[in-house]
UniProtKB/TrEMBL annotation:
Pfam families: DUF2383. This is PA2169 family four-helix-bundle protein. It comes from the Bacteria. It comes from Aurantimonas coralicida. Residues 6-113 form the DUF2383 domain.
């Protein structure tokens, strides 16, 4: 296990978590249902807390904070904004959230299974994964509710 590998893994996970928080914020903007908007904003705040936790670990290891997300995430948000313009806003918002949660959950599971992490970093990723898993379950419920 090397600190460099741990930082690299944490940076990737943090970028993905930033993308997810931005995705929740975008979905909240598109949603028309007030309760759904509130839920999505609350989930974005939880995901921002996960970003903060991951960033704290990156800095502890000697890396730099990540705040901007990934280029791929920005491109995906632009594409889905175009396609969502032709769909029911609540349904489109929950579908995008569900897709995003499936993606981020997979990234965190893979990191826990295969990444070269320090014990402290693994603990942080496990805590972040717990929040991600809760978000994935929420997204499943929302998608069923607004389908």
């Amino acid at each position: 296990m090397t600190v460099t590998n741990a930082i690299s893994t944490l940076e990737t996970l943090t970028d993905t978590a930033v993308d997810s928080a931005l995705g929740y914020e975008t979905a909240a903007e598109k949603a028309k249902n007030p309760g759904l908007k509130q839920t999505l904003h609350a989930q974005a705040a939880k995901r921002r807390e996960t970003v903060r936790m991951l960033n704290d670990e990156i800095v502890r290891l000697g890396g730099d904070r990540r705040e901007n997300g990934s280029t791929l995430g920005a491109a995906h948000r632009a594409f889905t904004s175009l396609s969502d313009a032709f769909q029911d806003s609540n349904k489109a918002a929950t579908e995008r959230v569900e897709e995003g949660e499936d993606y981020i959950a997979k990234k965190f599971r893979e990191a826990l299974e295969h990444a070269d992490l320090t014990p402290e970093s693994r603990s942080v990723v496990e805590r972040a994964h717990a929040e991600i898993s809760a978000g994935e379950r929420l997204a499943d419920r929302l998608e069923k509710q607004f389908d």
